[in-house]
Amino acid sequence: MYRYDAYDHRFLAERVAQFRDQTRRFLAGALSEDEFRPLRLQNGLYIQKYAPMLRVAIPYGLLSSTQLRKLAHIGRKYDRGYGHFSTRQNIQFNWPRLEDVPDILAELAAVEMHAIQTSGNCVRNITSDHFAGVAGDELVDPRPYCELLRQWSTFHPEFAYLPRKFKIAVCGSQTDRAATRVHDIGLHAVRDAAGEVGFRVLVGGGLGRTPMIGHVIREYLPRAEILNYLDAILRIYNRYGRRDNKYKARIKILVKEMTPAIFAQQVEAEWERSRGGPATVPDAEIERIAACFTPPPYADLPAHDGAFRAAVADNRAFGNWVKRNVFAHKVPGYAAVTLSLKKTGVPPGDATSDQMDALADLADAYSFGELRVSHEQNLVFADVPQSALPALWGELKALGFATPNIGLLTDIICCPGGDFCSLANAKSIPIAEAVQRRFDDLDYLHDIGALALNISGCMNACGHHHVGNIGVLGVDKNGEEWYQISIGGEQGEHATLGKVIGPSFAAAAVPDVVSGLVEVYIEQRHEDEAFSDTVRRLGIEPFKQRVYAAAH
Amino acid sequence: MPQLIKDGAIVEDRWTLWREAPAGALPPDQPAIVPLPWWSAQRSALSARGDVGVWLAPDADPQVLAADLGRLPLIAVDFPQFGDGRGYSIARLLRVQYRFAGELRAIGDVLRDQLFYLRQCGFNAFAVRADRNLDDALRGLGDFSDSYQATAATPLPLFRRRLATSPERA
Q1: Which residue in B82, B121, B157 is closest to A279 by CB distance?
Q2: pLDDT digits (tens, 9 = 90+) for A85-100
Q3: Chain A residues with CB inside 8 Å of B120's CB?
């Protein structure tokens, strides 16, 4: 992974000193609440329902075991012994004290981590594919470009006070595992006829109050121009994005109001002025960064390990886990393993400090000391020898991370919701748990097959409910918590927004509603037909009839 | 006389900022910063004086000044609230695209914690909000020692300087 040089270390030290002084001045009354707010937000610090919440960046989802141990330590020393992995490859601590935050940031800096720009109206953490570097369908490893963008976006002086937050995702493979179509900017690696790497540029996607799928504004951007082009997009947005209404301030609204074609023209005109200029990225810089992402020292292994094969055949539980949680690796004899943070009864995405320490040890033992965080709120050991899978499975089972449900209904994406978040209209964690309990029969769960259930506690959509095959949105109805259901959403290269099926439901009814939707799917699906395809083919009517007939 | 931060030091401010257009003629021998619409209406008379600058609102297009930039001693950009970031792009355009070489001054809700970024975007003068201490604000310019990006103040991005020197590893 990328290692900081003297410059990176110095910037981070300067940032910690700056925020320490800002916090001191705020506590001394020299900075007002309004003046301090954007400063603390750009250091990841929210004031939440019960306490501050600190959001720490895990740039493009990559973590070393050393860094994970540090996160465990921070959870233990400054929080209540746990952390929450979010849908944007961050980790959130829900109970730190404001006065402690500068010390926490200093501790993070010691392991090349930070909370810079994890909130606020600025460019946020750059996110990417959690299988970067190991996926067989990869055109190019996205991580060097993510790191290039991390540096470009960090303390970008022109874009620290944008109209609203700004999220960028980069994908290097054919399958889009980074949700690039629902980001403010999505970059999708492509090669031109000569084989040169470039990017398809999408702008104006996003979820939240006004969900939209991004528009392609350029089919091929040479990689050397990536910073000039992003500067041009951000400059147009910074100058013309709406600032009068925070709900209309995201770039998607500007792109829609201008039309994607006119927006693209303006960006191209702005780009012409900087094209080939100082921020053009030389190959040598991309190579310098890429040298940090060289493959680990893989052993020369047979493509198929006999003992592993035998274990799959002999042990049904192990076989189920392999089927759902183990992902093919481009290097013979290796596999990528997803650790499910979706065990029933545990808030999705949560891990305790003790678990994090144990996982750090396992990463050292089984996966070259590195792991990844996925936007589905799971963890990944990307480089495990097939022969080690049975032993690793045993270890993960003992820790509670071997639930064989990746991609299944109980692998729920879920925001912290009303239990923690002051923005939420409704709780989301208890809904996730109730659905998980309803679908506790593993055979039935596997029969249903791939199905994404996403839950957000409010229309800010941190739980990505719009792109869930089944989406659950918490709404406030006269002070009571109700849940609106949508179906047919999809993430990935065919990203689709779900359709609301009708009036909302009380919390207690949600498991029945989900059961009803799943029954209709199972009865009506063609062989191997995905849930969204069934919805597309039949429309929402049969689903609607079933759940509302049952409810009345 | 009021003071401001200019080129990294606290200096006396001899310029009068006209937030509203003057009712009659400008007083002679008194450097003035006037609103853009008023400047545009009388630019030939005003630019002959050599001591009249212009201030831009955040929604102004700096392109309208493109022909005047060689004659303008000072351009100010207003920040109605410090969180309104449009002025950063205006400064960047004035310095990098239009190559404005005169004084570029931030006015309005100008505070210590934004000074470093403002300078990186091309401002060299900061009319810090009147209720704030200038010595304290001056420290804001030193928050960081360098930038990753190509900026008006550091035209070469860090990666070009990194590549020019031998690899420096911590």
Answers
A1: B157
A2: 999 999 999 889 999 9
A3: 157-158
CA-based nearest residue in chain A for residue B159: A285
Chain B 18-77, residues with CB within 8 Å of chain A CB atoms: none
Q: Count CB neighbours of A462 within 10 A.
A: 24
Q: Is the pLDDT of residue B26 over 70?
A: yes
pLDDT 10s digits, A229-250: 999 999 999 999 999 999 999 9
With CB atoms and an 8 Å threshold, state whether A278 touches B92.
Answer: no
**pLDDT, average across residues B1-12:** 96
Nearest CB partner across the interface for A5, out of B83, B113, B168: B168
Distance between CA atoms of residues A84 and A56, nearest Å = 10
Q: What is the edge-to-edge ordering of all strands in the sheet holding A197-203? A: A127-128, A168-171, A185-191, A197-203, A215-222
What distance in Å separates the CA atoms of residue A259 and residue B132, rounded to the nearest whole number? 43
Q: What is the ipTM, given to two decimal places?
A: 0.96
The domain A413-551 is classified under which CATH number: 3.30.420.40, 3.30.413.10, 1.10.8.60, 3.40.50.150?
3.30.413.10
Taking an 8 Å cut-off on Cβ atoms, the answer to whether B144 and A288 are in contact is: no
> What kind of architecture, by CATH, is found in domain B3-144?
Alpha-Beta Barrel (3.20)
pLDDT in tens, A48-64: 666 789 999 999 999 99
Domain regions of chain B by residue span: 3-144
Other CB atoms within a 10 A radius of the CB of residue B121 amount to 29
Distance in angstroms (rounded) separating the CA atoms of residues A547 and A472: 14
- The domain made up of A6-109 has a fold known as Sulfite Reductase Hemoprotein; domain 2 (3.90.480)
Q: Which of A134, A170, A139, A172 is nearest to A152 (CA)?
A: A170
What CATH number has the domain spanning A134-290?
3.30.413.10
Per-residue pLDDT, averaged over A324-337, amounts to 97
Using the beta-carbon criterion (under 8 Å), do A235 and B116 form an inter-chain contact? no
Mean pLDDT of A254-274: 98
A376 confidence band (pLDDT: 50, 70, 90): very high
Q: Is the pTM of this model over 0.90?
A: yes
Among partner residues A8, A161, A285, which is closest to B85 by beta-carbon distance? A161
DSSP string, A4-38: --HHHHHHHHHHHHHHHHHHHHHHTTSS-HHHHHH
Contact across the interface for B149 and A14, Cβ inside 8 Å = no
- Residue A238 with chain B: CB contacts under 8 Å: 85-86, 88-89
Quick one: average pLDDT of A447-474?
A: 95
Contact B162 A5 (CB under 8 A): yes
